[in-house]
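Protein modeling request. Please complete all fields; requests missing the sequence field cannot be processed.
Requester role: graduate student
Desired output: 3D structure, token encoding
Chains: 1
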Amino acid sequence: MPKPDPQESEERRRVMLETADRLRQRGVSLTGRESSDELVSLLDAVEEYEQAVERRGGDLMMDEAPEGETPQPDDVHFALPRRGPRESAADYLVRVQERTDMILRHRPLQP
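Delivered output (111 residues):
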């Protein structure tokens, strides 16, 4: 059995940390127990969600909220769902994908 390559392991760890950071910056709660595959799948799903919001005329910039409160989007239909404290990555992934599908069917608010 070949020995693990320390450089490869370090690169994988760096990529996982970077992916986790990108998810947190988008408001996704992580437990730290997500696999590298789960992190990549979550990031892909969140990026698809963001593209759907933009295609439907939504604004990804949300109104700032006081510290400790959740920011509110201009249109609640475009809100990324929050991950529950005990929700698995797989279950959260399904909810993000469902929200993306809903956004693609949503009629934008009229000004």
